[in-house]
## 1
Amino acid sequence: MVQNGLLSPYWPTPWINTQQWYPDGLDMSGSLPALPMTAAILYNIISWLGVNVDLMAFVSLLPVIFGTFACLIIYFIGKDMGGKAVGLFAALFLALAPSFLQRTALGFFDTEVPGMLGLLLFIFLFLRAIDETRSLRSSLIYSIGSGMALAYFIGAWGAAYFLLDLAVFFVFVLILLKRYSQRLLLSYSLTFGLALFIATKVPYISLGYLTSGPVIPIAGVFLLLCLAEVLRNNISARTKVSLIVATITALVGGFVVMWQLGHMQGIAGKFISVLDPFVRSAAPLIESVAEHRVSAWGNIYFELGLGILFFLAGLYFTLRNPTNRNVFLLLFGATSLYFAASMVRLLVIFASAFSLLAAIGILGILKPFYALLREAPQLAIKSKRRIARVSKEYSGVAIFLVFMLLVTNLAFSPQSGGMPRVYSQAYAPITVSAASLPVVPSEPAQEWLDMLSWTQNNLQSTTVVCAWWDYGYWLSILGNVTTLADNATVNGTQIENIGFSFMAPEQQSLKMLECYNAKYILVFTTLGLGSPTTQQQYQYIASPAGFGDEGKWMWMARISGQARDRFIQTGFIGEELAWTDENTFGSRDNQTGAWQWNNVGKNSTIYKLLSWAKQRWTEVSGGGVVGPDEAGVQPEYFTEAYFAGVDLNPIDASAKYGGLIPLVALYEIDWQKYYTEIGQP
Amino acid sequence: MFPKVPDQHKIGKPLVPNGLGVIYVLFTTVYLFLIYFSGIAKASNGVSAPLTLAVCILFGGFMGLLDDWMDLKWRYKAFMPLIAALPLIYLAIENGLRTSISLPFIGMIQFHEAYYFIIIPLIVMIVTNTVNQLGGLNGLETVCPAIILIGLMVLSQFSYLLLMLGPLILWLALAALNFKGKIFVGNTGSFAIGMTIASFAVITDLKSSLLVSILPYIFNSALILLTIFLFKKRASVSFDGKKLVSDQRRSLVTLITYRRPLTEHQVVALISLLMVIFMSIAVLIELPWPLLT
């Protein structure tokens, strides 16, 4: 976009990026445009202003700046809801929400970044647009603004369905509460009309969006609003009844017809699985992505701590005073909590609802105490309360107690051993600069960076490197090689095939890799050091730590296992060697919980690739042996191209990574040997 | 600085400062923070026991403060402690605490997952509310919980004992003053100490001892609630200037003073004795008997 113009990925021809998802490539016109466009426009502006900054550095900084803006916007939402104090608290809570911090951290250049901004901006503007105390002119301006914010959100993040339906549901509830007004009809039509008009111009969204399941209700509620408008006028009861019947018939009939004609596009699997988490257990491809996991309640508590108390208090106060804004907040809080409980990633949406509600809760609790604190001391409260005279100091104690509760939440939280998650999150480095280890090294870990600079300097951008999809973006964007899969997970079949290449025995694996013209294959494994044995000098025993492919291979087995029949039918593997899940390759030891590979497992490609990398580490680094005590197996058709981390000796590993050793092993595929042995293709 | 309320069972109903439980809450919180900072009680499995305890007690005190302030409705009082169960559930799960309770005569009951999500919230809810319900006489709401807390501390490991040592000493000082009729701890104190007992028992995994020792409390609450539900009548004790006496048996206090005038101190001493008996039973059950024989 920066080089060829903003519309270049979409127009005149779609840009197919063959460096990712080789050979089909990744259709870049099928991506959501808001994030890259925002970045490109801002980058062009600052370049034009004469600021000379690297594009990669610029996009790394962008999330941080956007996150700051999001906090600013939530301040204004809070201010509208309950005054400046609510706004300030809400902004503070959002800024300190671990999930929000994680997704607006340096380098997190992802859809949530413009998404959260668009979400909050829309809420802020839409709630102002339907505010009847404002002039018609300002309502119109706010409606247009909220329409644009909504369009931006739709173009930014797939989670837009949530916000669309939340807003529609909110308006529906307002109708049920008999709070219909012309202003509502006006703002609603303008906002949604404009938003959908703009959004459908995005190639990925297109006109089909209008007839997809989650978007249809917009039209339905619009009809209801029109009906409410007509009913408001003085017409006969008979006409009213027939109008209502006609509308209901139209709604139901329209739905059935659309359904029958197949215009209701199925919602992508991810979204269905949010609504019904149990669908997911059957879909390992979705389940294997950590951010798609069902969040246990513990996760929510871990994140929010006893702040839940203030959240509940906030719900209580909004329920007691159901203004339009409070009704929205109530729905927002309840629905986002449901979705956050269903998918870890959506905690970030819940974080904003939580911040607002907790702020209202705290202020609601403190209000009477605070009021008394400001009163003249001689005034006694007249009430039937048991305490006849309450001094100013005593209400000061109450405020102090609330403060202490916040302290245990934001300064030393019990659930994370004292250090609240937000701070550990704040100090967590970008995964690549921590070599994908769960540690906070004092300086960037070099292993992955070394590997990526090696591929950049020694391989062509068209060289195909097969790796599990977790490393796809790093390899294609930072390492500048061609990859088969990455976090976009656009092609399930291809991921099954990659899983197959890793799990099958070498010859079968090569048959698959041949289809992809793969020249290299990469595995990442981690070792954890045990205490040194003193028998012969210092010998460390290093065993699999589980943060690399030695932990992920089970997903490779499960995902590829789903396509068992396809692999057999297409002749990639014989029925006797095929598998459905990881249990074909070994079993877990009941006593130690460690994985025991059986003969099939030890014959798999992944086992050999991992085993040989570990073997090389013991040879090169010195001072360490690998446990469990298995001889390193050298793969037949894969030769060492470059192994990063093999020279990391135990002493350095203890000092730098707390005893973890990251090994990034790149193997070159020995096609010549393969063809000599099985004959030319 | 503390609000004053009349002491109903003294001649002339002198005004006594109420709500001093907040001192206990603040002191305990700071004390537990210091324990945490000193590193004596290390976080196990990522959860810090002193901080968990601090957060629960803080919450109990906060709830009591709200109650002192605005007379919380019963439905809120009954269910609000559930919030404080969250940190305990989290701690119990992360540390993999036993999910079974062994009771005398009944034996071991295995609750599995239900222990975390049903039993712990129930423990917190019942203990805080029953402890809160036995009060109204000088010393009653302070001495009795202190007995249970001491019993639990005797049974716990040293590292846990340390968690409550400072707070216990302070609480005993408050109890002494309370017994003499100089101060009241208020609902702040009563909910905070109830929460202390519940969370300390969950953290130290001493729930069967807890269940035995709080039996008098449960009996008292059951009596009160049953008469309210069945006869819609509340317990009340009358004061003739010297002694307490009652004409009904709708609570533990009225049961003891039923047509038998006793001084306030006598009633408190009797109920405390009852507490000591049950606590001793709980301690005796827990003792490693095979070692003694």
## 2
Amino acid sequence: MKKKKINSNNLLLLITIVLFFVMYAAGCAVYADKGFTRLQTFLNILINNAGLICVTAGMTCVMLTGGIDISVGSLIAMDCMILAVGIEQWGWSSPVLMFLILAIGIVFGIMQGFCIAYLDIQPFIVTMAGMFFARGMTAVICKEQVSIVSDKIFTMLSSFKISLPFGGYINKKGIMQYPYLRVTVVVALIVVLAIYLMLKYTRFGRSLYAVGGNQQSATLMGLDVKKTKMKAYILSSFLTSIGGICYCLNTMAGTTTQATGLEMDAISSAVIGGTLLTGGVGNVIGSLFGVLINGTISTLVKTNGKLISSWSNIVTAVLLCFFIVLQSVFALVKERKK
Amino acid sequence: MMSSIKKLTQKRLFLPIFSMILVMLINVVYDIAMGGAPLGFFMISIKNGVLYGRLIDILNRGSEIAILAIGMTLVVSASGGTDISVGSVMSLYAGVCCLILAGYGNVNVQQYAHPLLAGIGVGLLVTLICGIFNGFLVAYMNIQPMVATLILWSAGRAIGLLLCNSQIVYVRVPSFQKLGGYCSIIPTPIIVAAVCVAIAAVILHFTALGTYIQSVGINKRASRIAGFNSAKIILMCYAICGLCAGLAGMVATSRIYSADTNNIGLNMELDAILSVALGGNSLGGGKFSLAGSIIGAYTIQAITTTLYALGVSSAQAPVFKAIVVIIIVVIQAEPAKAFFKKLTKKSGKEAARA
């Protein structure tokens, strides 16, 4: 067997994973009496962030090419609104609407990807326009909050519990409570696994790294840089649509202000997970842990009960700052070695 | 004829002025269609002892964006990136200023706990420090501008909320409202914005700072070799941007005489970036035109006001904004320019053949 050297990129991933476990262990130690040690608490983090995990997987792919996609939060709001209005007012069935949303995601991605890759416009500006557009369209479709109640398939998917056969505890009434998962978590984990395999073993996955690492050498290698970039944005919007369905299964409603700032959660999760914004370095597993760290912080703040919710934003920002500075220090050290 | 049009379109300020005129035309057409006075848009009258009119309204409401646009133009020019934290920093200013003026925990006060100047001074100092923090990360740690400012984007508003204990703090003192109200007959925000723009213009015109910033933006390494302290200049631009965000926050806070930290400056960073792009500046850094950005800022406000006048709700307005952004950037994009050139050449050849 070949021995693997730990380089700085793996080190970042390692730090993230260690940090997550340390943070979670600290939470268990401090809030043991409030039920933090239960397996369900951990599973709830997954359930609450299933949509975000899908989005972050897509964001990682875009960031690998050195780009950014800030339209995701608004796109999720639009997806939720289409689902809600489609079911409640147009009377469509939910599977049809889900396919419609996935199709919209792909079209949205093609538009953004074309502008970025072929028209050579900065990703930030294009996706900012996409963000405005999707957020405004949400209000054009419907201005009020619409709750989903009437579709049977959708409510069943939303309330379906996948019970685990272990890790249960006996509650106050003396009934054995087994921890459970939702459908959305399974979807999110499948997405992460698929993206992980894609990035590692497929031609497209490797070319994402190549394009992000050095665009010129990727061109010289004979890769179609523009096509790869465009595909990355299509993938991101598509995964965001899947994330949007997961998100909607959690909230069961469509509002115009839904998922505001979610794009920044996704970006910060990916950065904490070791993805470099300059492109070429990153891993979807790291991004998953980034989301989990974000989720743990907000759960800790919620479990405390006394702290205002903005503390979780502040802690996330501090962590983000720490990781960004760490990345930059590593980059400097690398340059010195050369 | 053709060549003169071409010369006109190649001028730097063509795009912002053209879009401004377009917005005004839409207003005039709308007024005529609705049976109003054809030049109602430009009418300025005095009502209740203050200036009144749609033009005044646009100038008044656009003050914050115009002030932000000054800082954003410099940041974009020097570092080729954008400062997305300005909206949050505005909100942070509101939190700090009202905390000092009202005292911690008070939600509704009729008189100051500390003098007004102390509140404004400390608030502006905090925003300046925010700017320096951003600038340090970008200039000395070599972090991408968007990512570096992402930290304060998230933390700024959160700290503001923390200072106000997640509540809206009202400061009901007339002298505090003055900055967002009226100075004799002219709305004070217009004066604040005009003073800021004038100071920036004078500094850029009479010192070499503007040239330094442009040269750093065009090529950071070459300007360092040429003897500029590139990192210091970038740091300075971010510091100015932070200060501008503070000033914009000052106007926004006084306008509603409260620290509504959740809503002050919300999505304002996008408007500021948009006004820089609309002003004909390249978002990749380098050459800039302050006048373009300022016109761009007021154009955006004019678009917003016009949309409201047309009956579009504030939640739906972003759709049109998005379309405007895409049209502007596609026109500016190099491949699109090449495509249009090819097209006009072809048609020219065909015309010659005919």
## 3
Amino acid sequence: MSRRTAPTEEAARSAPSPHTKATGRLSRSLGSSSPKFRLAQRRSLTGWTFLIPASLVILCLNFWPMIQAFILSMKTGRGTRLNFAEPLWSNYARLFDDEIFKLTLQTTFIYLIVQVPIMLILALILANLLNDRNLRFKGLWRTAIFLPSAVGLVSYALVFRTMFANDGLVNDILLGFGFIDGPVNWLGQTETARMVIIVGLLWRWTGYNMIFYLAGLQNIDYSTIEAAKIDGANAFQTFWYVTMPQLKPIILLTAIMSTNGTLQLFDESFNLTAGGPANTSMTISHYLYMVSFRNSPNFGYAAAISYVILIIVAVLAAFQIRVGDKRD
Amino acid sequence: MDTFRKSVSVAAVMALSLALAACGGGDDGASGDDAASGDGAASNGDNTLTVWAWDPAFNIYALEEAEKVYQQDHPDFALEIVETPWDDLQTKLTTLAQSQQLDQLPDIFLMQNNAFQKNVINYPDLVSDYSASGIDFGEFPESVVAYSTVDGKNYGLPFDNGTAITALRTDVLTEAGYTVDDFTDITWSEYITIGEDVLAKTGQPLLTGQAGSSDLIMMMLQSAGASLFDDEGNPTITDNEALLAAIDTYQQLVTTGVLVEVNSWDEYINSIVNSSVAGTINGVWIVGSIQSATDQSGLWDITNLPKLDGVDGATNYSANGGSSWAISSGANAELAADFLGATFAGSTEFYDTILPASGALANWTPAGESDVYAEPQAFFGGDAIFAKVVDFSTQVPSNNTGAYYYEGRDAVSVAITNIINGADPAAALAEAQATVEFAMQ
């Protein structure tokens, strides 16, 4: 009995000929087995081809320095005379005794807890307002609110510093309107200095997050909102029960990004308040810079500080994903 | 055939991407950034030197004039100047030294006197010393040379004079019935008394300063020959009589209103230029900023500092800042030392040129003896201030900086802010000492 017709697909799949088994997968992919299998193989190969270059770049430029930084954080010494510490975690243990570090940790957390929720809620409200179909000059409002995030970090910090000076614009306006009796020393007191930084951050990043929410809102099917209106929900109920759940992934994204950005805050602390009165508005990254470049360089310790930031960001991000990302 | 072409093109793209990624990944060792690539590397010609310095109106102008002076005897000499602000320069030095990319350093760079000990002690292979240069360091004031001397060797050639002066508005003083002579060779308690009187009569405070800045206290400390660190480098912040006296004086200045605290450098300069204050105490380099207020010409004069009451060794002279030239290791050290020695440490003609145009005051004593220095300055009411300052500079006491100077200054700044807000001085200073000792571990 000769095989004049090729075996059917099913027969070929369930009982591959000894020939293909011996020569392996490659010959199979070159056409001796079913078309479906070959396509899947090729798709997978194409996918890997596109992934590998980018992954290699990330590996070399992100993960390799991170590993080196971790090794550096286990060394002590000044300048280039670095040796492994005894015990290895002594830099981390030293952090617990560092009063300035503990102060900056506290300050950074204050910025995080106060600024991020206010900013995200504000951005959400603004996005909702600007998503209204009947609003005029939408482009103008959106551009105006987004523009602050396009301004250079150093320039805006310096302008804010001038504005909140003792004889600056803010004091002039408040005095002119009679809200205060004498000029407020914004940058010279701890609470107000921190407040100025928070105001600066809100001004700058609300627009940025608002754009994310706008994009998310555009993706919400209008029929769901219509359905809620038909069911008799008012504006707030529509927002809370219909819009918000559909925005959850975007909210999660912006929350993680904001947390990450605020924990690594540097420019405002450096340029706006220069660490503020007696180091009280200094952030962890600013302190890191001082330890590395302004004071007597102690790079092992600086690497340990940076790893603490990394750990905190990672923990918070994991927590936020756990709470926010409920995929079915 | 289609499949073959596709696989070949995919393979080619993959190979190219891998090569790109490998090239990109291999660079993570180098730390010199875009600026260093163009101007690094010591002497690209036999007679060319690269210099990193800041301030085009002052240091860079001086370098250009020095180049001209040196070219009179060495016509094929050239100087490549790269403007680099001090903060950037310090970051670059630390980065290059830490990553051992020392060939990216220039031949010469300018360094703040306060930072010399820290950089030389931590990175000894960053700079070359001047021992083979033949420059006579006795021609510079001892206190200034001391900043850049480590283990008895000289690593810096002093340039920018940081001698402290009291600058005063003579018109405001006259209104209150005083002259500049009433401020010469006095004590701080006398200064505060006069200051209160001037404030009452004219409504203008005598001093302005940045809140939380330890500059004024450091100047007072140095005027008494005291420091934050002893000769071995141990912190002497607690039980420091001169420091306690300085802080007490500072407190009195603030509470009486004779000193007005502002929050940033711009505000500080503004208060001088806008006539909100009747004077200031700072290094002589503040004259450049004062002179930017052209409408106040003829209304200023200078004198020496008040001395601390009740402290042994108190003087009327001090310094704040100043910078010196360092020669990097691996540079064309001979040529660099020869150039610097012939101009900054050897040419009165050079100093005569730069003084009138930029107010660049020499630390080099022979320069101070020239006629140009004795010329009356119209802005300062016809007083020959430069000759005065050179005279002051010879009487400034030295102070110990050490590798942890910035930590010390920071800790004292924090202590000052807390003391102004009501903390007990002894306790605040003890905390400052603990902070510095922790940082020194």
## 4
Amino acid sequence: MAINWFKYASPPAFYPLAGKMAPWFLALAALLGAAGLYIGFFAAPTDFQQGDSYRIIFIHVPAAWMSMLIYVVMAFWAGLGLAFNTRLSSMMAHALAPTGALMTFIALWTGALWGKPTWGTWWVWDARLTSELILLFLYIGYMSLAAAIDDPRKADKASAVLALVGVVNVPIIYFSVQWWNTLHQGASVSITRSPSMAAIMLWGMLVMVFAFWSYCIGAVLMRVRHIILERERHAAWISEV
Amino acid sequence: MAAGAAAAFWAVLERDLLIALRRRADVLTTFFFFVIVVSLFPLGIGPEPGTLREIAPGVVWVSALLAAMLSLARMFSGDFADGTLEQLVLTPQPLTLLVLAKVAAHWLTTGLPLVLIGPLLGLQFDLPVDELWILVLSLLIGTPSLSMIGAVGAALTLGVRGGGALTSLLVLPLYVPVLIFGAGAVAATANGTGAGGHLSLLGAMLMLSLVFAPWAIGAALKISLE
């Protein structure tokens, strides 16, 4: 059976679909999250170097992955909206930004909590931490620009250009920060050296990654529904839902 | 067509330079802002020469970033207000070229003065001669990129509420690589590793922004003029 994908590019068609999908993803996120946390807190053994403090990895790593991935996905939808002038693509980009910023913030916050017991400091100007911080600034800039322009279609296009400029810059920023870091403070802290991880820890992390994926998809679908309602409030089909 | 495009480029450049010459105060404000900000750091940190020598590249570069940002608002706002910008977008000449002329004029009036005063400010921080040269060279290669990237932000925030503060929010994170390699070039000279790599990367970023930024600026201007 062939699915007509373009059908769901129209807000009236996508709105009910998103409404049907979002609860499933959120339920899946809760289920996987519970399983992942159980593995993380009870099944996984205590690390012989870091003790129990390493257990924050089960939140930290998935959040950091999502924070970077969501920026790319956001730029993808923004670019699609700019190129094909599809309203829903731009709405998706706007819906992704707050979740991406939240993931970046969680990654930074849990990183600080993890850094205190293991490195003895809340914050180091490590390449990954610094580029994650700049990623947060990029999210904030994107959201501020979108919020500052009253005309939604104009806001879509302007923020899309910014997202595309940002996505070109993200790798440049990452590598420049990495080089800057190696020049300035040597290898006082190394989180690149990965000790061979016990299989159960890896499983816990994988489950948590899928939990974060499901949460992000569910949350973004919920948010895009709100954006559709807000933007299309004058349309006739809204009064029918 | 090619000759017409070149003529249009020079006409826009000449016009913008002439306007800058007529409104000298605008250009001088940015310049003195840069000088004052750089001079504030020793007052805040203390006059210890060793410390000053160490922080000089960073201080000069951060101040250059702020000064470049401060002047961004003026880049398109005057032309936007009196309708010139609309006419520029409507001309048959390629918009990317006209935008490039405007960015070039912006750099000549705000970036170049910073490059020229750089060595004097470096002397205030007790930088040795070879580091002074690298500082000037890094500013010379790096500040055009600042104008390029900044113009994208300025074009996007044209006629938007709270434009100035918003521009800095958009542009400053994108300035990070230029800051790192600009200040890094001077620091690398100081510790003897050589500034070649940093300067090459600054050059690479300039080339990259020369190719991509005019397109992004043009697209942003068209959106702002809708």
